[in-house]
Write a structure and sequence with these properties.
about 200 residues, alpha/beta, Rossmann fold, 7-stranded mixed β-sheet
Length: about 200
């Protein structure tokens, strides 16, 4: 495991240990729900699945899901929640990096990433992108939610050291995909506030 992944894993493991998980909702964001409502069920990828809210929602709507996260305790809790929801047979949870999807085979009909890809460096983002290019069916939707670059430097310190992605860099990274739409806004909580964007793509 390279240093970047090790550092990121330590940071996110600490967040899960301390209960600093603002993405711990019972349902995925409305944007995910709206997209799923337009699609026939098939095979899906949940990238950076956390406690499994998107994977469980997809399984409840008939999808077979491979869900990946590199924090073991997140995956352990996701498996418990899938079992409680009665959809465990429809989901295969994997402890691993979203930048290394070589262990997956076949083609997928959907990929969803709610706030994972923006937390890895450029080289790993390219590997992530290449994995999607290999795994997604032609025409399959890919929905990405990402933290975006602030217009001014963020002064908040170590916990908020990540500055976000430039929109142009996202568009360049996924130039081999077909961009269907974007939506930009602000994501905030009790101790954070940052620019964010949704990107709707097709493979």
């Amino acid at each position: 495991m390279d240093n970047e992944i090790q550092e990121s894993l330590a940071r996110f493991t600490e967040r899960y240990t301390n209960g600093q998980v603002p993405w711990d909702d019972s349902l995925p964001p409305p944007e995910v729900q709206a997209l799923v409502a337009t699609l026939p069920p098939g095979r899906a990828l949940d990238l950076g699945c956390g406690y499994g809210r998107t994977a469980i929602y997809l399984a409840q709507h008939g999808w077979q899901v491979d869900a990946i996260d590199f924090v073991p305790q997140a995956i352990a809790e996701a498996e418990k929640r899938a079992m409680a929801a009665g959809v465990a047979p429809k989901i295969q949870f994997h402890v691993g990096s979203v930048a290394d999807l070589d262990f997956l085979e076949g083609k997928y009909d959907l990929a969803v990433d709610v706030g994972c890809m923006h937390a890895i460096g450029h080289e790993l983002q390219q590997k992530y992108r290449d994995g999607l290019l290999r795994l997604l069916q032609t025409g399959a939707p890919y929905l990405l939610f990402a933290r975006l670059e602030e217009p001014e430097p963020n002064p908040n310190g170590e916990e908020d050291r990540f500055s976000g992605l430039a929109e142009a860099d996202v568009l360049s990274l996924f130039s081999q995909f077909s961009l269907q739409g974007t939506e930009f806004g602000e994501t905030s909580g009790s101790d954070y506030r940052w620019r964010s964007g949704w990107f709707w793509y097709k493979r």
